[in-house]
Predict the structure.
Amino acid sequence: MNRPSSGEDLQVYLGISETSVSVVLLQEKPTPKLIYFVNRTLTDVETRYQQVEKVALALLHASRRLRPYFQSHQVVVRTAHPVSKILRKADLVGRMVGWAVELSEFGIKYAPRGSVKGQHLADFAAEIPLTGLEEWVLYVDGALGRTVSGAGVVLEGPNGFLMEHLLIFKFKTSHNQAEYEALLAGLQLARDMGARKVICRTDSQLVVGQMNGDFQVREDHLLRYYHQAYSLVKDFEDVKIQHIPREQNARADLLSKLSTGKEKGQLTTIIRQVLLQPSVECLTITTDDTADWRAEIRELIRKQDSGESLCPADSKRVARFMIIGNDLCRRGFSSPLLKCLAEDEAQYVMNELHLGVCGFHTGGRALKAKILRAGYY
């Protein structure tokens, strides 16, 4: 083991197996050298975690064991798993929420693993094969209940990656509408995870036939779903939508039916989302970037990511902000991330929380706390 040089980034490599997790901490500049190595044997319960949860657990274990290194240096995690995109999602549930909050303290950066230099990492890297543009498999299904409807999404990727997404609808919907909501959520999830080639499988013959051009879309409300799904398909290099029997779509079907029961105490999925209105009716607000306070923060983050030096005041200002997709988010204390709003968007949110159907005409301090609990900044 060696002492790290000050002012240089530390690289973290993660190794995941069925029964253990391993972490290598090294520094590539000014000269490549190994800093530390830690591993941990998984308990019986942890061995049944999903692959992405094991990756997050390995990183969490490293941050606890190597806390002085994480606090004194910029840490760059080199991994082929989309763990960064998952930890930055605002609708996480279960154990991943606490992990995301704890890891957000260090301002960790994530980068593709790439090639590994050094003989001391040859055996370690052999356990994590490189991935290319593999096809991701997406299973979607919608379900109707007496009071609440829902949809289930199961996304399978390379290296044993598996993610489950549960949607709960708080509005009246038809069976075909629920199937389209599941398709939209699945495509958005695959896009957020960085998938380029997707095979989407569903047991709805109507959705498959309309998306493949075999059936004509006659209903007006389904036509809006069709156009939105078609626009999402353009974000991928290749998307295949296939029909499968219901028994082959059992996992997504089970997730969709969980929404008809209790909302607490039974969900073990990573992502849980509640839709108060159909996806095609969500309000979109356009803002002027020149008058948006977020534009300056975005520019400072861009300069920091490109390697330009910032003054101490600017570095301290952007330390709690990050860009996820097209959204600017701020790290919160009671939630992993808070979505930053422009002036017009903030006015709309305040009107909804203060005067809307769920508003209680609260005072300023109570309204501010309610906005933070809703996930906005």
Summary: The domain at 10-127 is CATH 3.10.20.370 (Ubiquitin-like (UB roll)).
